[in-house]
Amino acid sequence: MTDLTNTPDFVADAGIARHPHTLADGRELIYFDDPDTTLSPDRAPDLRELGPRPANARMRQDPLSGEWVSIAAARQNRVFLPPAHLDPLAPSTPENPSEVPSNYDVAVFENKSPSFGPLLEDADAPTGLDDLRTIGLGRIRTSVGRCEVVCFSPATEGSFGSLTVTRARTVIEAWAERTHKLSQMPGIEQVFPFENRGEAIGVTLHHPHGQIYSYPYVTPRTQRLIDSIESYGPTLFADILESEQAGDRVILRGEHWTAFVPFAARWPVEVHMLPHRHVADFAGTTLAERDELAVLYRRLLRGIDQLYSTPTPYIGAWHQAPVNVHRGDIRLMLQLTSPRRAEDKLKFLAGSEAAMGAWIGDVTPEQAADNIRAAIARTDAADAAAESTSTTGEAHS
């Protein structure tokens, strides 16, 4: 195991302005402005009268697996698929006093109903990975940590793929900076940016947004990865990338990133993306890597939406190295998955997958790669045609 510093030198894009604010109940809000923004740097205060924040959730340990389950009962009352005029992530109006007081390009704020936090430390309970690894009966700990909402746009509908390249780049900058800041907070062991898209995935808001969870432990999925690295060796990610780049499942390849359908894909639609050099998380990416990612990730998602006649539900999960361990051998990685296996069919996790974790694939990874490449080609052609029409129209005007 090779560990690197948990506070890498973060290189910020000076063209993307940041404006920190505080919401009425004390939660942090940060506006990230596009380089070509037309918005004023002055933002309105939050004038709502809000009650106290909910009590911090508590974690209970499953002694059969050692995993921790956060019981966040306050989340039961969160907003569920509101109409557009009551969108809590839209810029605030007198008729809709929302979570974001002013108009914005990208906004990040602490979740009102978090699964972890707002406490970052609990003076009344043991903390740390050694304590959390111990197995026992009836073990309870405070769900310290932080949960943030990342609003991709003030629009009430859309997703990352519907953003402009400029806006996509601003979102990626927000991911990088928040990863950097959250990784330095006490009690945080892993930072996880992600986007849930589509009602089939379970979204409760149609507004284009994602979230960032900051956990007080290393997640179970990453623990399994650590076991694989300890069995295989520290070059696992580099070797996977080399093997996939030489194969026939590559979807997109740039100077800095490669996207591919993995060899043993579980889901009908599953795409992984890796940076070409070792980087533990978004905070360690260069400006050039973020620039290219804004183009490639957007192309990938727009292609995924062209697989069928209606938008594809998905989870865009950005796996990052833990804050304090295995930073030298766990690489930043996108794992994008969708349960959609046909135009009108979804893959449900039934007995074998849900109960035993033993997966059965419905589509060969090679066929899935062919389908996604063809969908991206259709999207690229449509975008090129639209650009040509726009350019022709401008020339004749």
TrEMBL record:
The UniProt record lists the keyword Plastid: no
Catalytic site: H209
Alphabetical list of Gene3D superfamilies matching this protein: HIT-like
Domain Galactose-1-phosphate uridyl transferase N-terminal: 88-218
Enzyme type, top EC level: transferase
Location of the Galactose-1-phosphate uridyl transferase C-terminal domain: 233-374
The protein's annotated pathway: Carbohydrate metabolism; galactose metabolism
Name this polypeptide is given: Galactose-1-phosphate uridylyltransferase
Family from the record: Belongs to the galactose-1-phosphate uridylyltransferase type 1 family.
Reactions this protein catalyses: alpha-D-galactose 1-phosphate + UDP-alpha-D-glucose = alpha-D-glucose 1-phosphate + UDP-alpha-D-galactose
Recorded GO CC terms: cytoplasm
InterPro entries linked: GalP_UDPtransf1, GalP_UDPtransf1_His-AS, GalP_Utransf_C, GalP_Utransf_N, HIT-like_sf
Annotated PANTHER family: GALACTOSE-1-PHOSPHATE URIDYLYLTRANSFERASE (PTHR11943)
Region spans: Disordered: 37-62
MF GO annotations: UDP-glucose:hexose-1-phosphate uridylyltransferase activity; zinc ion binding
Gene behind the chain: galT
Keywords: Carbohydrate metabolism, Galactose metabolism, Metal-binding, Nucleotidyltransferase, Transferase, Zinc
